[in-house]
Write a structure and sequence with these properties.
5 strands; 5-stranded mixed sheet; about 40% helix; alpha+beta; single chain
């Protein structure tokens, strides 16, 4: 109920999503459609220090990102598209652990698609925790992944999240125009 209420409020406050994706946790059997909203506040060069270069899962169906991140997702997906039968997962189960990532055969740095898979893991947590999600997970998310009990939600999101690709025809015209104007 809480997720439905907050999702409706956020949808009414914002514009249309920049795109929709398929996302789930490995424990789920069905894919869910998540809406990804972009805002300049979350761009890497934003003047908002706590929002700069961040992605946030607000509810079980809404993820907030920066326009620059949304562009990177589209570029990555054009080069190597994810699909529900071949989802993107966080390599080694961690975004920021170079040793685990290298052991899993990935690069030291996570891709934008892996970060989105991590956010899909958070969307499953929001589904499970309902109204407790934002105060509980939001209170510890700045601590990121790690070996301590307060890192549990971040670790779990990276271990379980799956990004199953873009929903066909869901990319907004504004994002397509931004990519068209971008220098090669």
């Amino acid at each position: 109920m809480w997720n439905d209420f907050l999702t409706r409020c956020l949808q009414q406050l914002g514009t249309a999503p920049c795109f929709r994706i398929y996302g789930k946790a490995r424990l789920e059997s069905q894919w869910r459609i998540l809406e990804v909203f972009a805002t300049p506040r979350r761009n890497a060069r934003s003047r908002w220090p706590l929002c700069r270069a961040t992605c946030i899962t607000w509810t079980d169906r809404i993820i907030g990102v920066g326009w620059d991140f949304a562009e990177r997702i589209l570029i990555e997906q054009a080069a190597a598209p994810a699909a529900r039968h071949y989802p993107v997962e966080v390599a080694g189960g961690r975004l920021r652990d170079p040793e685990r990532r290298l052991a899993a055969g990935a690069g030291e740095r996570a891709t934008a698609s892996e970060v989105l898979a991590h956010e899909c893991g958070h969307s499953w947590q929001a589904l499970r925790l309902g109204g407790a999600y934002l105060p509980l997970v939001g209170a510890v998310t700045l601590f990121r992944e790690g070996p301590h009990f307060w890192n549990h939600f971040e670790n779990q999101a990276s271990e379980l999240g799956q990004f199953g690709g873009l929903v066909q025809g869901s990319v907004c015209p504004d994002l397509m125009n931004r990519l068209a104007l971008r220098p090669s």
